[in-house]
Inverse folding.
């Protein structure tokens, strides 16, 4: 097993992975952290758990769109960035709605 230190929301986390998988884990962690940074830029200061939840939902949304045949990678960079921003804002609004519903119960 290999040990890797990844960053999420400016904090280091020690993770283990199979030998030879370190670079892939670092690449994936960097991608996730980048998504979280974009959410944090829009939302401001939020708890790590809420940020992680919003990031996970955003990534799930991207996966769902990819499965539906909406390849974001085929768009040019500006269109992709604009779409990502819209997706982030829309996802954040959905999360806030869910959070309000949970808090109300």
């Amino acid at each position: 097993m290999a040990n890797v230190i990844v960053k999420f929301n400016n904090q280091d986390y020690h993770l283990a992975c199979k030998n030879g998988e370190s670079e892939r884990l670092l690449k994936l962690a960097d991608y996730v952290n980048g998504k979280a940074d974009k959410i944090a830029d829009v939302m401001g200061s939020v708890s790590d758990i809420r940020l992680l939840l919003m990031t996970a939902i955003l990534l799930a949304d991207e996966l769902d769109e990819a499965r539906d045949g909406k390849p974001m990678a085929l768009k040019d960079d500006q269109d992709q960035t604009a779409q990502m921003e819209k997706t982030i804002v829309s996802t954040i609004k959905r999360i806030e709605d869910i959070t309000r519903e949970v808090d109300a119960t």
The two ends are 44 Å apart (CA to CA).
